[in-house]
């Protein structure tokens, strides 16, 4: 899931008894006005992609052409990845395959999409990781956690964040105030009230200096400087000047940004290719992206045309 801090920020979860799924923490980012889950997808029997949609109070999935692939029947649903999508039925979470058949029986208090073959799930007050059979490979033990990226995942132990490998071994000792998923060999971390980036050895390669920041995708990351967002490259050099009220990660060559509370999309040069017109918007995935108009969710293609008209 891709979060928003006005679109960017650390992507991870913390967990407590009684807390329900889809709670995304972004730390001390004071500009955060709205959390919207970037509803993109990854696998379908029809086109290789499935995307969650809401219809008449239930959640189903469409393919990238906008055709219903799984009828709305779930109370909540998340991103498809590795062939499975997390779904909530009643109070518990499990996983369905691309035909809508339950592949992992609902049993978890929370469930995230699979990432690199493992999925983060919550059981009571702790978080662990399961494989595609639903078997725990890393037992629930963490206060907070994130998804695997570049073979590492952020976890919280005794209030501090570090990183584990897929065997559950600590490879970067807990030391950060917050930590995000690795992407393109860098991870966003917070030290005090500033965000910077570390490499896979845990060394800071871009010093904490930003009040808000996002993960690297396609060689760029959104950062806030003053009260505006721009983009830096992996050396920390500013490549798109701060000018946006909100900014998201690049995907499919485009990034969602906001000007005067309206969301649109820019290219890697910072030029608008879809003018600001939406109340909210998420990242593109395989050519389509979720957008919101007055709390109704739809999907558009890269021409800005709807493939699924907004519904609620």
Can you walk me through this structure?
With 312 residues, the chain is an all-beta fold. It has no helices and 31 strands. It has strands at residues 13-14, 51-55, 58-62, 68-74, 76-77, 85-89, 92-96, 102-108, 110-115, 118-123, 126-130, 136-142, 144-145, 153-157, 160-164, 170-176, 178-183, 186-191, 194-198, 204-210, 221-225, 228-232, 238-244, 246-251, 254-259, 262-266, 272-278, 280-281, 288-293, 296-301, 306-311. The strands form 8 sheets. Strands 1-13-14-15-16 form a 5-stranded antiparallel beta sheet, with no helix packed on it. β13 (144-145) and β14 form a beta hairpin. The chain is flat. The model is unreliable at 1-9 and 15-47 (pLDDT under 50).
Give the structure's gist in a few sentences.
This protein is mainly beta.
Strand content: over 45%
Q: Helix count?
A: 0
> Which stretches are poorly predicted, pLDDT < 50 over at least 5 residues?
1-9, 15-47
The biggest beta sheet, please?
5 strands, antiparallel
What is the helix fraction of residues, given as a range? under 10%
Q: How are strands sequenced across the largest beta sheet?
A: 1-13-14-15-16
Strand pairing plus helix content: what structural class? Answer: mainly beta
CA radius of gyration = 18 Å
- The count of β-strands is 31
Mean pLDDT: 87
Could you tell me how far the N terminus lies from the C terminus, measured between alpha carbons in angstroms?
20 Å
User: What is the approximate shape?
Assistant: flat
